[in-house]
Amino acid sequence: MRTNAWLIMAVMAGLVSGARADLIQYFDGYGFIQEVAVSGLESSYYSDTKLGQPVTGPTTGTMLPTFGPNPVTYPSPVGPVPSPGGAVGKHFDQGVLGVRIDGGQMTISLASGMNAQTGYYYTGWQTYYSQGDPFIDVRDSGGIRHLALLSAWARNSDEQPINLNNGHFDAAQAYHTAGGAGASSLEGHLVALHTNADVTLVGGRGSYYAAIAPAGLDLRTFACGGTDLGYANLAHASVSDFGQTWYIQTWTVQLTDLSADANFDVALHAAVSCGNDQIGGTFNVPEPSSLLLVAAGIAGLRITRRPS
Q1: pLDDT tens for residues 168-218?
Q2: Of 123, 126, 209, nearest to 163 (Cα)?
Q3: CB 137 within 8 Å of CB 267
Q4: How far is CA 195 from CA 53, 55, 150, 192, 239, in A?
Q5: What pLDDT is attached to residue 70?
Q6: Strand ranges, E, within 76-115
């Protein structure tokens, strides 16, 4: 867990660069924070994804997924970098992932360069991309379970769902927008994942797929099936920091929806639908008597500029 020294350094860096600290302020009070510098580190999900086992593969089936010390290695001439940047790349950045525990509730916020409600269209690829779903892995006395928080599905100016990657994500779109009772939307819901078929992988026009994916990049994107565990109070916000607009989705779930144990481990992971960026990490949910210790040791936040 980082100390508050990181937060002080981040604020100072913002003052030196002339950038506002809006993103830091937004995540003030979050006890677990992963930030932009983590947004391209090698994931242990990678071997599962390459084997076509995004949910129940040998790594995630027996242990929580982890992020290693090395950055994702992109094809030449980019090489090993946290994530390609530039004018286009910033739209796909996974900026900050924060978790706050208040009593019996867990709040999860994801700041992305991608507006999950509208998606992103770039004429060079002639296709839409959007923010993927955060995946949750829980390890407790019962073993490992897999869940997902459903992001908003991108809409066009007429409020109609956008077809992503020329139909590659049709099953995920149908599940998000009409997979509930009476064909109701499941956007913002917490779902339990059971089989590999409950997860859609990156692919389609203009996207990475297993055979050509950068080394260490996870290819999970959206949940496209599973058991609905209820609405997770999805809220949207946006802030400006380092000259970039960050779009924030926030979900709130009951700890009892994740585990009946008083103490358990959680891993979080999210990626954009193009498969160009990822973020995540692993942390422990303490029993209620330890929550004051978590609050007293709030992790700091470091914001790192993307290469341009």
Answers
A1: 999 999 999 999 999 999 999 999 999 989 999 999 888 888 888 888 888
A2: 126
A3: yes
A4: 9, 6, 17, 10, 36
A5: 84
A6: 79-80, 94-102, 105-112
